Amino acid sequence: MIHFDYSHARSFIPADEMKQLAQPVFRAHEMLHKKTGPGNDFLGWVDWPMTYDVAEFDRIKQAAARIQAHSDVLLVIGIGGSYLGTKAALDFLNHSFYNLLPASKRNTPEIHFVGNNISPVYLAHLTDVLEGKRVSINVISKSGTTVEPAIAFRLFRDWLEQKIGREAARERIYVTTDKSRGALRKLADEEGYETFVIPDDIGGRYSVLTPVGLLPIAVSGIDIDALMQGALDARMEYLVPDIQENVCYQYAATRNLLYNNGKQVELMVSYEPRFRSFAEWWKQLFGESEGKEGKGIFPALAEFSADLHSMGQYIQDGQRLLFETVITVKSPALDVNIQPDVADSDGLNFLAGKSMDYVNKKAYEGTMLAHVDGGVPNLIVEIPEATAYHLGSLFYFFEKACGISGYLLGVNPFDQPGVEAYKANMLALLGKPGYELQKAELEVRLRAK
Amino acid sequence: MIHFDYSHARSFIPADEMKQLAQPVFRAHEMLHKKTGPGNDFLGWVDWPMTYDVAEFDRIKQAAARIQAHSDVLLVIGIGGSYLGTKAALDFLNHSFYNLLPASKRNTPEIHFVGNNISPVYLAHLTDVLEGKRVSINVISKSGTTVEPAIAFRLFRDWLEQKIGREAARERIYVTTDKSRGALRKLADEEGYETFVIPDDIGGRYSVLTPVGLLPIAVSGIDIDALMQGALDARMEYLVPDIQENVCYQYAATRNLLYNNGKQVELMVSYEPRFRSFAEWWKQLFGESEGKEGKGIFPALAEFSADLHSMGQYIQDGQRLLFETVITVKSPALDVNIQPDVADSDGLNFLAGKSMDYVNKKAYEGTMLAHVDGGVPNLIVEIPEATAYHLGSLFYFFEKACGISGYLLGVNPFDQPGVEAYKANMLALLGKPGYELQKAELEVRLRAK
Fold first, then answer.
1. At CA B424, angle to CA B423 and CA B430, rounded to 5?
2. In which domain, by residue range, is A398 found?
3. Burial class (CB in 10 A: 0-12, 13-18, 19+), B115
4. A417 within some domain
5. Which family does it belong to (chains A, B) (predicted)?
6. CA atoms of B229 and B238, how far apart (whole Å)
7. Residue B441's closest chain A neighbor by CA?
8. What ipTM is given for this predicted complex?
9. In this predicted model, what pLDDT tens digit does every residue of A319-350 receive, in sequence order?
């Protein structure tokens, strides 16, 4: 399973502090499992790998097979939690150039995201690559009124209906939404779209293993049974309340200790470009869960070795506010050997016969020690292989660590009150009925400078 | 030209502090232009838009036309400054799905990067998409011995020679390197590759407007004359030493004042997915220039509105260590209107007839005011349009602001001593001759935990 190593952070934490966290960690564990803490109506994810609806899961697989059979492209319309988890899984497990492969090699539809921004340029460009292709849509929104996905769905539903007619479009639109309420549920029922349910007790950033993520992930050909099995086994492994035995809780505790000792920014690092989107998912998970009441570690990411040549100087010598969490894989999916060169013009013949993975691992080890020497604690999260099973475990590992970590920090890790401020301003400025006074106030401020 | 507005940061800076910076800014200006400050042997970029080699520039355009004519793919081999600036320009100006467009629509080669990581998976996957295509290579390295690009060049040079023979490969390999020294220069001269020069007095992160960036940028069809003209006009505009008139210096000063007043993290924000890579270039520019001696703002990026649904909560309510610098474009390249919907099931008919760009701008205005209210100062950098000309200006604006900013901070903005630490460790662990003792020491530490 997942191996966690905080030995390269120990010297940054007073020796007795870890021990002193045993009790708070135990209390956080109890709050999660007895549902007695803040946000306790959003704990559906804790037992989800065991309690999910098996009939719906089968229906997801059937829908995925249908989409694969009749589509060149799947458009996934969603934002935040309805986007980042899926993107994380697709990038983590699929071919690095998935959409660029010939269809005959890929055997599954291209997958594009939309409704995750308001850029007219992106939208117009996206329609260019859809030209002449058979498109299916999976729109994901609890309410159906979140501005970004709602605009995108309005546009692409219209686009699809104009291409193939309203009747045929009904067979190409798949809706993931609330089980009974909201604008999107109402529309889906009226039109007869096939629907999947976003559980009431699972927030967006915890939803990747629900239909939110599972349908598009399955369309790409990933084994969602293995994904859920990995999460199920992780759930079992991280049930033990004792921090000495629970590496998930050790991660939660360690990052809080580092935070209490002045480390305000956590960099999720990997040496595989495919893992970057996983770090984006992790940024939402922790940033949105903990960034409140003026508190919380600022989550950022780095992709090494690329970013060693851009952010490496800062990490080594800049403000000492960083720590790193490195995601590493024991066995790579593929490897390539470095060949000898007769002229040895680049002086790299000392690497001849070695594999790229060997070089990548030595870069990781050397970097970790250099950064630790520079005052940057390193936490290591290692998985055996980059498979669907281990990704399922990783999702669960970080979800649970986040719940524990938020409780240790003293916040409600399952709400997001701060995201309303900009939404209200935006709707007011856009002239939504009912916001007239706020609109006038904001416009005065914008003119005043 | 570029419009800079710090009115939404003023309340975070004591009133007299900006005035007190007039003299230090003037001194920094003098250090840059009289070359009297630290790092003064790396100031070639200051006058580069005026002093670059016109004959070489023409040769770049000819080489680009040749590559366009005989290649389906250009492989760009480089890392750090030999990668991020090019990527920034390609993404900023080209089609959002450039590589995915049919060749007949794109009319220029696919462009892929390699040598910017050590991932065997990425490398193996890249060879999959090269299958059956005519490939040219532009390898970019001052020394030719930086491990990542050197390994990639070794592999793909061999790959190309096996495909088309050593003789034909000579016509497909373009080398950007030192004018006279180094392993890559030597090899290029021996093999007769066409070469372009990385100037001695311009560091990697300042090199995008040299052949380092210009060749691959030109291959993608971008007008590099316009790019250089934008930089040239920016050079002229930001020659004035008075901070009252020089918005480039105002940006440099404001971010230092925010830093001195407790803002330790700068988020470069945009509302266009195409600008993300520009922010990655900016991260290297500022992070590597200022992150030293335990000092420097930590640079990070956000792509709105996507990241409002992930990092929005943190920005609004988390630790108050952030400020934002928003890059915005007055007129979008393309726009899309929102249509009315008879049923108005999503309740968005109040937006009918409005354009996406209008909605995007209101999201930006509303978000800015919400974040300012939440304690996050906002700086605004606005360009009229996302054209090559304005991108050239932006590159120069930030390069010069970075030089001024680094001098205000009291560091040498043109060196990067911290990147040696991990490199030495890596080479030692890889068994490079001469590192035997260091290797033994590191291995003891790795075993010890």
1. 90
2. 3-38+241-409
3. buried
4. no
5. Belongs to the GPI family.
6. 14
7. A369
8. 0.97
9. 999 999 999 999 998 999 999 998 999 999 99
